[in-house]
Amino acid sequence: MLDVPRLINLRAQKDHFFKTHPQSPLSSAQKTRFTHLEYFPPMPRLVYEVTLIPHEEQSDVPIQTSTGETRWYRRYGWFAFTVDGHDARLTVYQTPHGLFLPFVDALAGQETYPAGRYLEPVELDETRLLVDFNEAYNPYCAYSPYYSCPITPAENHLKVAIRAGEKLPTGDWLSAE
What we know:
alpha+beta, six-stranded antiparallel β-sheet, 9 strands, globular
């Protein structure tokens, strides 16, 4: 179930972080012009409780980054879901910090970041995950070339639109030097 007030609060906190925090991915000039990130409206139907199917061979796989480096992630499991009547499937990766779900949707390059967005699914128990696409976010490399971000693997490119979470960044603050 989507907690809309919580989601709105999280978005406001993120905007404040981007505008004011020293660890914000924005430059000082960008912070001066920054007002807020762009988001899709809260979408309760894009919150899923899914069954995680463990990969038979949970091996470490290389994933390229936006700066050409290689990072290693454990191919942990996958889940299937339906969006607007279309079946979809995504692979979940494991990191030392938790679960990682990079994905590219059909809106990439038009309404969403071309290299994809990220999520951290919540483990409900050993076989179930909470996947809330309303919390999908852009990697820091969407805002600055000084960050190295994992590029979404081909297996997580969706043919369906996910109209939830962060949108493609827009505004004159992006070009501020």
